[in-house]
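Exam prep: given the inputs below (a chain plus calcium ion), describe the expected output before reading on.
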Amino acid sequence: MSCLQVLTGDAILIRLSRRFMYALRHDFPWVEKGLWRKVVHEKISGLKEAENMNQTSCMMNRRDFLRLTAVGAAALSMPNLALSAGSARNKPNMLFMAIDDLNDWVGCLGGHPDVKTPNLDRLAGRGVLFTNAHCSAPACNPSRASLMTGILPSTSGVYHNPNPWRQSPVLKNAVTIPQHFMAHGYSAVGGGKIYHGAFPDPPSWQSYVPSQQNNKPDDPMPPNRPVNGIPNTSHFDWGPVDVPDEKMGDRQVAAWAITELQKKHDKPFFIGCGFFRPHLPWYVPNKYFDMYPPDRITLPNVNENDLDDVPELGKKMARPEGDHKKVIEHKQWRKAVQGYLASISFVDTCVGRVIDGLDRSNYADNTIVILWSDHGWHLGEKLHWRKFSLWEEATHNVLMAVVPGVTRPGGRCSRPVTMLDIYPTLIELCSLAPKDELQGRSLVPLLKNPEAEWERPALTTHGRNNHSVRTERYRYIRYSDGTEELYDHEKDDLEWTNLRRRPEIRRRQKAALKMVASDKCPRGNGGEGQKETHIKAKGAVREPPLFV
Ligand SMILES: [Ca+2]
Ligand SMILES: [Ca+2]
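Solution:
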């Protein structure tokens, strides 16, 4: 008990080291709530100042001292007590990998029968694969802002891609995941796409590749665009590029990450490694297109009448007269699926190279690997393309974690979880100070036992007051005008049959939504571009309270 120095008599001067205070307050929430609060908060003045000092002195009587030392002794006797929580020594390293726009078309997730992802499959096989993981928002910027800050879009008001997330009053001073790691003695460097392209966040990193202002390396383009012949669709295009892999931006980000892993690190590290594909445009080298001959490709199973039982707001999200109509008119469906599959297999090789780089490094045994995608993608299901919807194709994304000493190989977890849960999970795994404002839940119980109980549903929000909750069996959607959808995944994994008229199931799903969604969602926080009206139904003049 060297951190306590007893001096004299009934009044005892105790020197509490910062490490010891962290151990009590942060590794043992019950201490924070109970004895620690009663004993120490009442007796020690200037505790906050103490957190900014290496040591502080305080006065307490003998009885209180004994209570406190009992807590300390209990704490010291428990496993995993990170008395080093305030210091960085012996902390695990973090390899934090992101893939843009990757839906469940990954071999181990079974989303598409043709896809080849040997590297993602082998990484998933080393730890726990979450098979029912969902984004907080089905768009790059709100999903990533939410993941990196641990705050829901319906709390921050960051609903869409054009919303500058640091200008949200809620997120203005948010401490992001890498910032929190840096505050605990980690180095934090990044490369590629971790935040949405328009809103990089230099305070999150000590250095960035290609730069703090431009997170995306250049990619080669085919000479004659659009390759698919669909006019006026910007980067909604696909086709091979005749370049070696080394010319691809993602491959350069992988090479940078491997270099970081080969360095000698005198601090624990947090490496953020973000891949851009399979985001549009689907321009990747020829050999990846050659893996998927269009005439042998399996197209998504689509019900032409699927939108008939979908409310007006859902139809507006689907916009069947938009991308889907163009793809069909230009006979591009097979080629588009080929482009997406090719882009997935390309990014899979980038992931494989980084994993091999970690295996060759000195840090293979004490590095946590977490890999996520920011949302899913439609390729014609519900006559919709891209993300921007509240159905399974858009909300379901990839999440896997390999945690030395915690996960076991081959773990699969079907509990509904969200990207919001990543931040508190990493805090627990690395014994960082808890942050009360985070709105997710630590996944550590599921990493230890993928079949552990898990009551919370996964919430996805697209625009103000449009919510979807996914439980293990059902999906329930409630749009801002009060209209609803309900699907039973046990019988209908393609979400074709809206069961909104089943009152008993609906009641339970509404209760699930209430568990996770606020009924006072703020308006969007500005920014140009996608307007709220984009997802307002005709005649929907007033948004009712969420729960009526
Ligand atoms: Ca994205
Ligand atoms: Ca339907």
